[in-house]
């Protein structure tokens, strides 16, 4: 049996819908909670997909969550991904990894350490 990773989503915009649909086709991840800088957006997403709504800080501290799906705007990918890695979780984000090459290299280095 495959391991099912418990995923927390940060960034509840339109692209989030694609990932919720995608989890129906893959048997290795389940989105269990969401967060957004706009708490109303997180609450709406949570209600729509029957998951928990949390603050960003709560989702980072949640020991049940193993992976964070970073769906924030590209300018926030670096700062959010760095917080995720520092909290000891895996992170997945769409491109770009960061808006500056040096910041992207820093994240790769941090991920290797963590």
Essential attributes:
Rossmann fold, 5-stranded parallel beta sheet, single chain, alpha/beta, globular, 44% helix, 114 residues, 2 domains, 5 helices
What does this protein look like?
The protein has 114 residues and is an alpha/beta fold. The protein folds into 2 domains: 11-53, no CATH class; 66-114, NAD(P)-binding Rossmann-like Domain (Rossmann fold), CATH 3.40.50. Helices cover 44% and strands 20% of the residues. The protein has 5 helices and 5 strands, in the order E-H-E-H-E-H-E-H-E-H. Strands 3-2-1-4-5 form a 5-stranded parallel sheet, with helices on both faces. It is globular and about 40 Å long. The two termini are 27 Å apart. The model has no long low-confidence stretch (mean pLDDT 95).
Number of strands: 5
The CATH topology of the largest domain comes to Rossmann fold
N-to-C series of helices and strands: EHEHEHEHEH
Low-confidence stretches: none
Secondary structure layout:
Layout: E1 5-10, H1 16-22, E2 29-35, H2 39-49, E3 52-53, H3 56-61, E4 67-70, H4 74-86, E5 90-93, H5 101-113
Parallel strand pairs: 1-2, 1-4, 2-3, 4-5
Helix pairs in contact: 4-5
Short description:
With 114 residues, the chain is of the alpha/beta class.
């Amino acid at each position: 049996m495959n391991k099912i990773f418990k995923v927390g989503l940060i960034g509840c915009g339109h692209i989030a819908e694609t990932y919720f649909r995608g989890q129906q086709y893959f048997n290795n991840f389940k989105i269990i909670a969401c967060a957004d800088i706009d708490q109303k957006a997180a609450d709406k997403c949570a209600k729509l997909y029957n998951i928990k709504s949390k603050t960003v800080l709560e989702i980072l501290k949640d020991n049940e969550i193993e992976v964070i799906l970073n769906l924030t705007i590209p300018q926030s990918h670096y700062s959010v991904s760095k917080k995720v890695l520092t909290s000891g979780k895996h992170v997945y984000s769409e491109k770009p990894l960061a808006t500056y090459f040096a910041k992207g290299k820093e994240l790769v280095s941090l991920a290797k350490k963590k």
